[in-house]
Design goal:
By secondary structure, the chain is mainly alpha-helical. It has 8 helices and no strands.
Length: 177
């Protein structure tokens, strides 16, 4: 392995401490993301492809560095999003719980403060979210919906690009001490 990959894989336990956020910040940011996702696309249709609740789930799960916390964050955001959308209650809760768990698990192993890693993870978890939501809709609800691979990749890239400045803004909200 090269120096960069060795640094990503071996030096994290010393540097990768969980970030602290006030509970009010977490609740306000999550609620704002959900309300954005529900109401803004009514006026600007092209923003319906921006999955802010997912990006909030990924960010806070990555920064908490605890799979249990990531699962609860994803579950709470997903169920709140389900309650305000047309989806059956629990579908987004299940998917976002898995995203929270896996993103927190990834943060234990990789340097998630690196912007390139964050962008790749945002892209990957968008794709994972869309694919797993499609699987659940077909398996649990028996709905015949199509999974457009190319469109999902394109929207994943769009969300990953938006994630970079968004995650930088969230970094500024960290509690000190």
């Amino acid at each position: 392995m090269n120096r960069y990959s060795d640094e990503l894989l071996t030096e994290l336990p010393r540097r990768g401490r969980p970030s602290r956020y006030r509970t009010s910040v977490l609740v306000v940011v999550a609620l704002a993301a959900i309300l954005f996702h529900v109401y803004v696309p009514l006026f600007f249709e092209y923003l319906s492809y921006l999955e802010l609740p997912l990006l909030v789930t990924v960010y806070f799960s990555l920064m908490k560095r605890s799979p249990v916390s990531g699962t609860f964050i994803g579950c709470a955001i997903g169920l709140a999003q389900d309650s305000l959308s047309h989806h059956p209650i629990g579908m987004l809760g299940i998917v976002k719980s898995l995203v929270g768990y896996f993103s927190a698990s990834v943060s234990l192993r990789f340097d998630v403060d690196n912007p390139l890693v964050r962008m790749i993870l945002a892209f990957f978890f968008f794709f994972f979210h869309q694919f797993f939501h499609w699987v659940l809709m077909r398996a649990l609800l028996g709905q015949e919906i199509n999974f457009d691979f190319e469109q999902t990749l394109l929207f994943g890239l769009f969300n990953a690009i938006v994630a970079l400045p968004l995650f930088h803004i969230f970094d500024r909200m960290r509690s000190t001490g």
